[in-house]
Amino acid sequence: MKLIRHGGEGREDPGVILEDGSLIDASGEFLDYDEAFFACGGIESLRSWVEGGCIGGARLDPETRIGAPIARPSKLVCVGKNYADHAKEFGGEVPDEPVLFMKATTACCGPFDDVILPHGCVKLDYEVELALVMGRTASKVSEHDALDYLAGYTVMCDYSERAWQKEHCGQWVKGKSADTFAPMGPCLVTTDEVPNPQSLCLWTKVNGEKRQNGWSGNMMFSVAHLVSYISKFMTLLPGDVIATGTPAGVGMGMTPPRYLSAGDQVELSIEGIGIMRQRVIPEA
């Protein structure tokens, strides 16, 4: 299944995309795609509703706004330097174990929303990432069982202000967490539609120029390993998101660096999930 959330910002309702591409509202049956939905067997209930013909579900205008496919998660955990080519373009050594950092969940937004260039932001960068959405509470789970704890996958762009990330004291989080710096979508694809998360092509274009062109099989730490590893350090709740790292081709890694400016358009895609698109606009 492909889950969406639609409607005005902060007022999104749940929905689904059918196999023929139709957008169907599901708000008559489900409140939202949030922690309670995933924890209480929402995926199975939604599947039954869809297979039963989406009774009571209205067809949506194809032009309706699409929001992030899940309501604001309790945690947004990110993995840094998880592709060897990306680690090398940053001039660093390949890590012995996953590099973790957090991104504020207030950065989450829809897949086609504008990305706001904050006042004082001079090094805005992009990173296409396969994002994992937890379907069950996970604490100290084995790598063998880790994929069973996932609800599905989505696309995320980990926008970063590199000066705030790299040149200011403290952790990376301050360069990662501005509003609109974590667009997700265009849908959440359930795990049954992605039998092997290590076989997906992912790419980014800036103003039509392909900048990133990677393959999830080149992750140094697999999806299963990441879920297991992270669950050793924190309890992952249903609806939590893990961003799994990005391949080479980010603006900071180019010579000279090529950061984003107001007016730029960024397009990102992961095979089998879909395409997102954002326009960079200056903060009012």
TrEMBL record:
It comes from the Bacteria. InterPro entries: Fumarylacetoacetase-like_C, Fumarylacetoacetase_C_sf. Keywords: Isomerase, Metal-binding. Pfam families: FAA_hydrolase. GO terms for biological process: carboxylic acid metabolic process. One of its GO terms (molecular function) is isomerase activity. Residues 75-280 form the Fumarylacetoacetase-like C-terminal domain. Belongs to the FAH family. This is 2-hydroxyhepta-2,4-diene-1,7-dioate isomerase. The keyword Metal-binding applies.
